Design the sequence.
């Protein structure tokens, strides 16, 4: 008796878009589990399967590679069932007694804590700055690619190397990394190559180091040294990606290589190191993002798609697991919209991750079947029209938010009804810092551990003209005043009966340039009123914003200890009043 999968036509046209079901191998998937998953996926709209190959399973002794278990899985999918496959190669390592990677080859945070964690097992991440770890990774990747390509080439859609505990090709965004000894020394050499002598660097960094060897990487990305730290981490990540691409292409340059990023535009993308995704994908063929279910997928697919297609590359999006629905973060229609919007905006692949073949899958199978209809090459895509949107990576780096650009995008495209051509200017990775660059920035220097210092977070009572202290709230992941919704988070302000305030305390006399931007997040808000006070006096008069973003630049003479405060006040109601905020302050 034939199985369901026997009735599925897998010899689909090469230009057909792909809906891909993902199967993890953190715990090795049994033959029976694999068969059930493949048959259920192929019967419900999917036309490819993704297989996960962890390095820690395949190499437990140095230089000894064991691929038999993964070959058996691929033999079933490719040889027996003629299914197209995507192969994710996971470079994390299980912590503990690892005979392949030594402690000095891992990533650490600035406090010396190992970069470890993740689902299923406590896994660690190698340092991209460690020459020995990179060599070991490339040796393993070379052996694996030779095995895969020699056996399954005709059915491999792409091979995707991923590095983080979230199975993405980036720094892990669950903390600030990489502060390993190799990264610290690499950063010093990076600065030496740029500035030559310590005096030139001190001038740019407003520092007084006696030698380069005294320099420690900063804890955040604020100021000129923060910019340089981002540039170094980007260079280290790109070098590792390029080395893997070179390794695979030397074996067979016809097999596509793909990279997966958690995001390339949201706030966490700075920690991920993925803002300059175009540069990172220079030698790759495919790039996909793991968009949250309620992201603006029209914007996302046009943003990465227009950049990649112009360079002859393909794009993809990923639908995350059912647990988002269980946690109340979305509804199933959000996943349906993500799939349809991704395909009609021209993406080539849509992967589905963290779904099990269980009752939740079967209850929602119609959603996958509907999305699967858009893989047909005859399905019409949205027309490409005239709108062009210009995006600056340095601007996005400073803002930690794409809100300004998404607002412009939705106006140009009538909320994604047409495809917009987005031009990305990389004025970030090679930007030369100067003495007029931003010295203090929000949210770049935002912290959940201390609101003191040059930037602090307070409530403001406009009846008395007094500021109040805030306490950290784990519930809201923000600083909270004496009214529940008087909040300041990373790049976010929200007013209540008390206003919320970000206060800059001048560390020295001088003339500052103070610039800020504010964007109301939720369309249901009746807006907020923004103002700037200097020692309690009006420096920038109150402005009401609702649908438009507000941007302003002010100069002021300050004395040491002066306070310049950005104030967010509710308009009539404080419902839905979260706003995205960016503040830049520089001495000239």
Sequence:
């Amino acid at each position: 008796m034939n199985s369901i999968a026997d009735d599925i036509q897998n010899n689909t046209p090469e230009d057909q878009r792909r809906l891909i079901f993902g199967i993890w191998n953190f715990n090795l998937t049994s033959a029976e589990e694999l068969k059930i998953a493949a048959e259920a996926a192929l019967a419900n709209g999917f036309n490819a399967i993704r297989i996960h190959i962890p390095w820690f399973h395949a190499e437990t002794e140095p230089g000894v590679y064991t691929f038999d278990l993964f070959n058996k899985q691929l033999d079933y999918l490719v040889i027996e069932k003629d299914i197209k496959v995507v192969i994710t190669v996971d470079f994390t390592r299980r912590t503990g007694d690892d005979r392949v990677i030594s402690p000095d080859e891992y990533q650490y945070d600035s406090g010396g804590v190992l970069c470890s964690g993740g689902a299923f097992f406590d896994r660690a991440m190698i340092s991209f700055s460690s020459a020995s770890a990179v060599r070991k990774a490339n040796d393993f990747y070379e052996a694996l690619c030779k095995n895969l390509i020699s056996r399954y080439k005709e059915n491999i859609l792409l091979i995707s190397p991923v590095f983080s505990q979230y199975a993405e090709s980036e720094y892990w965004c669950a903390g600030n990394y990489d502060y390993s000894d190799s990264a610290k020394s690499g950063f010093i050499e990076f600065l030496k190559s740029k500035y030559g002598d310590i005096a030139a660097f001190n001038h740019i960094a407003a520092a007084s180091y006696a030698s380069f060897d005294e320099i420690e990487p900063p804890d955040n990305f604020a100021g000129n040294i923060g910019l340089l730290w981002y540039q170094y981490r980007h260079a280290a990540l790109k070098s590792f990606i390029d080395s893997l691409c070179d390794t695979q292409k030397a074996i067979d340059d016809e097999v596509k290589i793909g990279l997966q990023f958690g995001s390339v535009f949201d706030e966490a993308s700075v920690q991920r190191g993925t803002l300059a995704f175009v540069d990172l994908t220079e030698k790759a063929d495919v790039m996909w993002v793991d968009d949250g279910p309620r992201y603006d997928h029209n914007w996302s697919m046009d943003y990465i798609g227009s950049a990649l297609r112009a360079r002859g590359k393909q794009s993809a999006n990923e639908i995350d697991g059912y647990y988002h629905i269980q946690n109340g973060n979305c509804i199933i229609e959000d996943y349906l919209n993500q799939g349809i919007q991704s395909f009609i905006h021209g993406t080539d692949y849509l992967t589905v991750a963290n779904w099990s073949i269980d009752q939740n899958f079967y209850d929602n199978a119609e959603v996958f079947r509907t999305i699967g209809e858009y893989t047909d090459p005859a399905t019409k895509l949205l027309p490409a029209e005239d709108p062009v949107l210009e995006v600056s990576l340095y601007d996005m780096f400073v803002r930690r938010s794409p809100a300004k650009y998404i607002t412009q995008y939705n106006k140009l495209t009538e909320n994604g009804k047409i495809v917009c051509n987005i031009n990305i200017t990389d004025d970030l990775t090679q930007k030369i810092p100067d003495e007029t660059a931003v010295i203090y920035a929000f949210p770049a220097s935002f912290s959940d551990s201390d609101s003191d210092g040059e930037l602090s977070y307070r409530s403001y009572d406009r009846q008395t003209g007094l500021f109040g202290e805030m306490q950290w709230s784990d519930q809201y992941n923000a600083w909270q005043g004496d009214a529940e919704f008087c909040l300041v988070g990373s790049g976010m302000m929200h007013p209540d009966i008390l206003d919320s305030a970000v206060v800059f305390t001048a560390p020295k006399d001088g003339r500052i340039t103070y610039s800020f931007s504010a964007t109301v997040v939720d369309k249901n808000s009746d807006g907020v009123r923004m103002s700037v006070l200097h020692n309690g006096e009006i420096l920038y008069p109150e402005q009401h914003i609702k649908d438009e973003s507000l941007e302003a630049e002010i100069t002021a003479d300050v004395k040491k200890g002066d306070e310049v405060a950005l104030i967010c006040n509710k308009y009539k109601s404080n419902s839905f009043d979260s706003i995205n905020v960016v503040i830049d302050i520089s001495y000239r």
Notes: The first helix runs from residue 31 to 42. The two ends are 79 Å apart (CA to CA). The chain has two domains: 4-91+130-172+237-381, 440-587.
